[in-house]
Amino acid sequence: MSSESFAALASQGYNRVPVARTVLADLDTPLSVYLKLADAPFSYLFESVQGGERWGRYSIIGLPARTILTVRGYEVIVTTDGKDVERSTVSDPLAFVEAFQQRYRVAPVPGLPKFNGGLVGFFGYDCVRYVEKKLAACVKPDPIGAPDIQLMLSEDVVVFDNLKGELFLVTHADPAEAGAEGAAKKRLDALTVRLRASLDTKAMHDSVNACVTETDFVSSFGQDAYKRGVDHIKNYVLSGDIMQVVPSQRMSAPFTASPMLLYRALRHLNPS
């Protein structure tokens, strides 16, 4: 992108302009790119298999995000660089998320993949309470303290084209900041250098089996309580209160290996 194009997009009122670079990556894989550029908290790797047999064309690697939006109940917290910049209690967290997303006007840049940044994260099952108000009065225990919603503002993204063996390095610049375009290009330079560096794979040769065994897992529910739950479900079905239920339980075990090692094992067992 030329400086003139950047300035033209900024003049149209966009407060985020994607600055991108295409790099040949036929000797890399999405996993190796993730490990080189993004192996830290609040990063992600998206891969997919189509039809259970073919890898999807694009893999997406999100570099560690600076801004995180977290919702617990009706409390919303926005953090940037580890510091709270916004904290409030809202009546509709879903509406807040929508309004938060609309704060960012991202300029369209021809030639870039459809997804090259934005909000990435999860909406927990209990978000149904924001829609079904009757459920809001039913307070459930939360032993692990998981947020109901947690979203990263993903502004540094790598889109890996598995077909062409190339990738797009994308960083979103804020035109309101002095020298934003130059800083974005320097950021791409630094990422390119890291991408060309060799990868230490020694730790990746460990085995997940050595870290955890089947007997290590502990149920959060217990067998007897699970059976009683199934009996309750049968009664609800017979009474016509419900049509179907998926009873579930959380199984946990100590795990000392890296999350990436676990991901690689799951990816091998079930690529979809």
Highlighted features:
alpha+beta; 272 residues; Anthranilate synthase
Overall body shape: globular
- Rounded radius of gyration (Å): 22 Å
CATH superfamily: Anthranilate synthase
Which strand order does the major sheet show? 1-12-11-5-2
Oligomer: single chain
Number of domains: 1
Just give the CATH class. Alpha Beta
Largest sheet: 5 strands, antiparallel
CATH topology grouping: Anthranilate synthase
CATH architecture group name: 4-Layer Sandwich
Report the structural category: alpha+beta
The residue ranges in which pLDDT falls below 50 over 5 or more consecutive positions are none
Averaged pLDDT? 89
Description:
The protein is α+β, with helices and mostly antiparallel strands. It has a single domain (3-199), classed as Anthranilate synthase (4-Layer Sandwich). 27% of the residues lie in helices and 25% in strands. It contains 7 helices and 14 strands. It has helices at 3-11, 30-37, 93-101, 133-136, 180-196, 223-238, 259-269; strands at 17-24, 44-46, 49-50, 54-55, 58-62, 67-72, 75-80, 83-89, 118-123, 149-154, 156-161, 166-173, 218-219, 251-252. The two termini are 36 Å apart. 20% of the residues are buried. The mean pLDDT is 89.
Short synopsis of the structure:
The chain has helices spanning 3-11, 30-37, 93-101, 133-136, 180-196, 223-238, 259-269, and strands at 17-24, 44-46, 49-50, 54-55, 58-62, 67-72, 75-80, 83-89, 118-123, 149-154, 156-161, 166-173, 218-219, 251-252. It is α+β, with helices and mostly antiparallel strands. It has one domain (3-199): Anthranilate synthase, CATH 3.60.120.10.
